[in-house]
Design goal:
The chain has 18 helices and two strands. The protein is mostly helical and about 525 residues long. It has a single domain, classed as Up-down Bundle (Growth Hormone, Chain: A), CATH 1.20.1250. It has a two-stranded antiparallel sheet with strand order 1-2. A hairpin with a 7-residue loop joins strand 1 and strand 2. Helix 6 crosses helix 9. The longest helix is centred in the middle third of the chain and has 33 residues. The protein is globular, with a radius of gyration of 38 Å. The N and C termini lie far apart (about 90 Å).
Length: about 525
């Protein structure tokens, strides 16, 4: 043993105190070794030599060996136990600074930046696409709704124009639409039992299979010169009779298509309702725009063949593709409810009661608007059917864009945003008092922009705030009430147009829509979050 050296006793543990040194001396030795003062000599186990006075030899970092069990912690190099080529020596430099009393500055952790607007829109689009792709029946239902509604918009434009041009009477024109709404109201009172017994999918198949030949009978009788007003009223009544159970089933099948778990999520059901409404709004854009041109080229009666064909294609799509998941239990409906069960459920819930009043007030104005437009175009705006098509298409464009907004933003819209949508629904209707095509088109566009948001909100609240076993009867009551309001609006609009003119009727429409929007906002303020399971 050389002078100044220390020895290890035979059998002594590594790291144990030896003669002539205190237990804490090895810490001083390690600090010195990190600073390059000590040097270990190979071949002399445990021997540490202190060099002579002079400049201390610095040991390269790659040759330093620091024992991980040394007291003080944190002295082991990062990557200890790895090959030297893969080790990093940042830990050594940090430890040197800490033992010398120098604290390395570490920057504060960076806060996560919120996603940009483009990224949020992209995520929303992916969520919407995922909902469609993961629910194949929903995609098929969307397609069927798009086709049949496209044909219905052609009929809504062609049939009143046909009656008005051939008879010259706004009253007879309104009678044709009134007959359809009468069928909706009368059959709608018992349609809940029909849906409960047959099921949603079978009811939709029967509705499409019946309406296709009924619609085809109008142009067929016109070709045979056998069409008169009583037959036209009877056919319109039959079309309305199959409409109420079909529309109710179309809404009730959505929770079944989404499955037992997703079908109880208000945001997902609301998004699914928005997708179905989007089919209606997109068709509302294309149908009137093409309808005005087709009426001018082919005539109004021939347009009805297209509507009959869309009902037939819709039947095939529902038959082949619209099927609830096999693992989803069927919703148990009550097919023998007490009399007036659906109406009683709505009236017993204060928010649904307010939403029902808002729905009635707004629905009163819809048929009145579409009855006013042909009269306005024929007597005030030159009598060109293309002008009628462009005005109706302006409303359809607003409906299409509003449906896109409803699908992408409805799940994030709070009470204030829905209130703004209600104001946007009613305020532009006052522009209809100005008899200029561009101003009327702007008012119809803005009103259509807000309609899908409010419609999807109402349907979702009526669906999820009702126990599953009562939903067919509640939806039948809602559809019947809605169509009863449309029936009253169509009955009163025709005589009012003939005796008072379009301006007083448009003013009444704006007042009723404003009252409905105010009631809708009041219902939002008192709505607690209540949702029922789908099974």
């Amino acid at each position: 043993m050389g002078p100044g050296g220390t020895g290890r006793r035979s059998g002594a543990r590594p790291g144990a105190a030896v003669a002539g040194h205190q237990p804490g001396d090895h810490l001083d030795r390690d600090r010195g070794r990190l600073a390059g003062v000590h040097r270990r000599v190979p071949g002399a186990a445990g021997a540490v030599h202190r060099p002579a006075a002079g400049r201390a030899r610095r040991v390269p970092a790659s040759r330093r060996r620091v024992r991980p069990h040394v007291a003080g912690g944190g002295l082991a190099r990062r990557g200890h136990g790895l090959p030297r080529s893969r080790r990093t020596h940042r830990g050594d430099r940090a430890d040197q600074g800490r033992h010398r009393g120098v604290h390395k500055h570490r920057p504060a952790p960076q806060t996560r930046r919120p996603p940009s607007r483009v990224l949020r829109l992209r995520r929303t689009h992916l969520q919407r696409s995922e909902l469609m792709l993961r629910t194949p029946g929903l995609l098929a239902l969307f397609t069927a709704k798009l086709l049949s509604t496209f044909g219905s918009w052609l009929t809504l434009l062609a049939l009143p124009w046909f009656v008005l041009v051939t008879t010259g009477s706004p009253v007879k024109m309104s009678l044709v639409l009134t007959a359809e709404f009468a069928g909706v109201v009368i059959v709608g009172l018992s349609s809940g039992k029909l849906v409960a017994r047959l099921g949603t999918r079978r009811t939709m198949l029967i509705g499409d299979a019946a309406r296709a030949p009924l619609m085809a009978s109008i142009p067929l009788l016109h070709l045979a010169d056998g069409l008169n007003l009583p037959i036209l009223l009877a056919v319109s009544f039959g079309l309305g009779a199959f409409t109420t159970p079909y529309v109710s089933s179309q809404r009730l099948i959505l929770p079944e298509l989404l499955g037992p778990v997703r079908g109880t999520d208000e945001k997902l059901v609301g998004r699914a309702n928005s997708l179905i409404d989007a089919a209606t709004r997109i068709a509302a854009l294309a149908g009137p725009a093409l309808g005005g041109v087709l009426i001018a080229l082919l005539g109004p009666a021939e347009i009805l063949w297209i509507d009959a064909g869309t009902y037939f294609v819709s039947f095939l799509i529902v038959l082949a593709f619209v099927r609830p998941p096999a693992n989803a239990p069927a919703t148990r409906f009550t097919d023998h409810p007490p009399r007036g069960d659906g109406v009683r459920n709505v009236l017993s819930d204060p928010p649904l009661r307010l939403f029902g009043v808002a729905l009635v007030l707004v629905t009163l104005t819809v048929p009145a608007i579409f009855l006013c437009l042909p009269v306005l175009v024929l007597h005030e705006l030159g009598g060109n059917p293309r002008t009628l098509g462009l005005l109706t298409a302006a409303n359809g464009a607003g409906l299409a864009l509003g449906s896109l907004a409803a699908v992408t933003t409805l799940s994030r819209m709070g009470t204030n945003a829905l209130t703004a949508a209600a104001i946007l629904l009613c305020a532009p209707l006052w522009l209809l008092l100005i008899e200029r095509p561009i101003v009327i088109a702007l008012g119809l566009f803005l009103t259509g922009l807000a309609t899908p948001v409010l419609a999807a909100t109402l349907i979702t609240r009526f669906t999820l705030r009702t126990p599953p076993e009562h939903r067919p009867h509640v939806m039948a009551a809602v559809t019947t009430t809605e169509n009863l309001a449309a029936f009253i609006g169509s009955v009163t609009a025709g005589p009012a147009l003939q005796f008072a003119g379009s301006r007083p009727v448009f003013a009444t429409i704006a007042v009723l829509a404003s009252a409905g929007a105010a009631t809708f906002v009041l219902g939002l303020r008192v709505t607690p979050n209540v949702s029922f399971a789908s099974t």
